[in-house]
């Protein structure tokens, strides 16, 4: 029984901690990237409290799903490029429990930064 609980625990750790209310379209918000869910999803929050973290889906980058080829590498690169660094984002429409937003790091679009680093695109929403 203990083995089953240990096996189930990694799945629990995968739940994203972002719980702040989502901003309206056009709202500009900023803060450090506090959490990276996958290659195109992250949380932005000004404080260490996850209740203030806004869940973001990058507007112009479509990473593979984590379970697909390239998915884990895309997440790792987004963490390398952005985690802990301040980003400026402009909210677009909402999608499920997150806001689709264009985010910039030091003036550069995060999607463009990932492309320059060779991250594979082609996940859900690929056009």
Automatic annotation (TrEMBL):
Give the highest taxon in the source lineage. Bacteria
Q: One MF term in GO for this entry? A: endonuclease activity
Keyword entries, A-Z:
Endonuclease, Hydrolase, Nuclease, Signal
Q: Which SUPFAM superfamilies match?
A: Staphylococcal nuclease
UniProt signal peptide: 1-15
Sorted alphabetically, which InterPro entries does this protein's record hold?
Answer: SNase_OB-fold_sf
| Full protein name | Endonuclease YncB(Thermonuclease family)
Q: What organism does this protein naturally occur in?
A: Phenylobacterium koreense
Lineage, please?
A: Bacteria, Pseudomonadati, Pseudomonadota, Alphaproteobacteria, Caulobacterales
């Amino acid at each position: 029984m203990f083995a089953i609980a240990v096996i189930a625990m990694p799945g629990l750790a995968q739940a994203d901690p972002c719980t702040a209310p989502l901003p309206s379209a056009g709202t500009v918000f900023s803060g450090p990237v506090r959490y990276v869910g996958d290659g195109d999803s992250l949380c932005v929050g000004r404080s260490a409290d996850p209740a203030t973290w806004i869940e973001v889906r990058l507007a112009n980058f479509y990473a593979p799903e984590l379970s697909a080829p390239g998915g884990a590498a895309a997440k790792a690169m987004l963490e390398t490029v952005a985690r802990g660094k301040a980003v400026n984002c402009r909210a677009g429409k909402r999608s499920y429990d997150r806001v689709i937003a264009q985010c910039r790091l030091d003036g550069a679009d995060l999607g463009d930064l990932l492309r320059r680093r060779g991250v594979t695109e082609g996940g859900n929403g690929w056009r």
